């Protein structure tokens, strides 16, 4: 009997842990949703900030985040996929392979502000890209690279070996086998992981603070060499750096909601994409 | 015959191309270390390295005597990290145990995506919530003038490291061979006894690795601590005092510092210290995790 009571109490404690964590998450979402929802309007989404950011919208920040994510994707997605193809299809169990994997795992643990410092040295100063969309996008690209590689490799792992062996047995070269029998089936999974990584990159602040994000810039960037406004940095500014913090609080909430919605939207897009590609494959 | 040679050449070219992309990861990691080191060196021409690591005062813009001691930042970083672990480890292991051993699979499949949403919330949003939600609450509960202090930072970092701790702990609990549980249950253990005395000890190395990874994230986290801990550069007196971590200090000062001054180089030196600390933490967790996986195989 005593055993039953202890078991009941123990499981009860575990339940409390779960409820607590869920409550915190749902409360976060509720708070941002309810207070940010009021700030969002067509004007908020389509106009530039006005009057020292106390009025107007966040359009330049939305576009800035979009553009920098595109640069990140162009840089990190192909490189991540190629590296994953090497690791899963070509690499043998040598110490060099183990070293590559160790480096990838360690890269994913490097603090984001350290990537920011590296971006300042390499992209802004040595390569002379200045503080720009290009520098920030490349810095974020380095940050996402380990996630992209890991996710792409997971997708490649799910393709059974018989697919490769079938092609090889018919006389295909290794690359032909990969191109015709592995990549078409692994691509949906690879894209899924890649977009999830990009969604995380879009929310990063520390790496872009010193490589290109601008405090206040009420116009759209004209080239890759321009500075830009970004949603996460804009939220940081509105929450801590603004001279009238309580006055702009609703705008800060609105920015936070847009940022979260953007990231959730990217996640949703992934699920829809995966679903549709799967259906096409079956037909 | 000619075509065959061409094919061979093409194949090896493709292989080399993919290999280059793979090897790049090593070069990036070494590159980060090398560039940080290279940019830090000028700082140590002016500053004694022992003084840098053990000095309590950080006052690089003082007109009288510039001081570059980062000990209070190191202590601050470890303080919030410790606070975060105290909260996140029991909670995370509790949730992981519930998911792996108690929950019905339908419940599990609803809870896991919700926790994944948490992993997707950007750190700047968490920091913002620290200012607007936890700050006032902490000020009220502890009767202090404002709630931007180490407690606030610890709570936020705990929330941020929960997804990592939960998912890896749950994986390692699930990886415990079924025979272990079957044996203990057959001998009359309750499911609680089975969890506490058999499964958690068997999964311990995985759980420790999960905690270390969460710790690595907490040490390197910038935006939340920058926004929610008050950023007072003094030596921390306790959990209710405002603190400034290494990451926050870089974020605050790098935007204002004149380029190529000792102060500028010193900020990169802090980055180097940060890189080395997180590298070691991640390496140790990696070694633990791998020992654990090898044993399972």
The outline of chain A comes out as globular
**What spatial form of chain B do the alpha-carbon principal axes imply?**
flat
Distance between the termini of chain B: 46 Å
CATH superfamily of chain A: MetI-like
In short:
Chain A is mostly helical and 283 residues long.
What do you see in this structure?
The complex is a heterodimer of chains A (283) and B (297). With 283 residues, chain A is mostly helical. Chain A has one domain (41-282): MetI-like (MetI-like fold, Orthogonal Bundle), CATH 1.10.3720. Helices cover 77% and strands 1% of the residues of chain A. Chain A is built from 11 helices and 2 strands. Chain A has helices at 2-37, 42-46, 59-90, 95-107, 112-126, 133-157, 161-169, 174-202, 206-209, 231-241, 245-282; strands at 49-50, 55-56. In chain A, strand 1 (49-50) and strand 2 (55-56) form a beta hairpin. By secondary structure, chain B is an all-alpha fold. Helix content of chain B is 78%, strand content 1%. Chain B is built from 12 helices and 2 strands; from the N terminus they run H-H-E-E-H-H-H-H-H-H-H-H-H-H. Chain B has helices spanning 2-46, 49-54, 71-102, 105-120, 123-142, 150-174, 178-186, 191-202, 204-220, 223-228, 246-253, 262-296, and strands at 58-59, 67-68. Chain B has a two-stranded antiparallel ribbon. In chain B, a hairpin with a 7-residue loop joins strand 1 (58-59) and strand 2 (67-68). Chain B is flat, with a radius of gyration of 24 Å. Classes of the chains: A mainly alpha (283), B mainly alpha (297).
Write the layout of secondary structure elements.
The complex is a heterodimer of chains A (283) and B (297).
Chain A: H1 2-37, H2 42-46, E1 49-50, E2 55-56, H3 59-90, H4 95-107, H5 112-126, H6 133-157, H7 161-169, H8 174-202, H9 206-209, H10 231-241, H11 245-282
Helix pairs in contact in A: 1-11, 3-6, 3-8, 5-6, 6-8, 7-8, 8-11, 10-11
Chain B: H1 2-46, H2 49-54, E1 58-59, E2 67-68, H3 71-102, H4 105-120, H5 123-142, H6 150-174, H7 178-186, H8 191-202, H9 204-220, H10 223-228, H11 246-253, H12 262-296
Antiparallel strand pairs in B: 1-2
Helix pairs in contact in B: 1-12, 3-6, 3-9, 4-6, 5-6, 6-9, 7-8, 9-12, 11-12
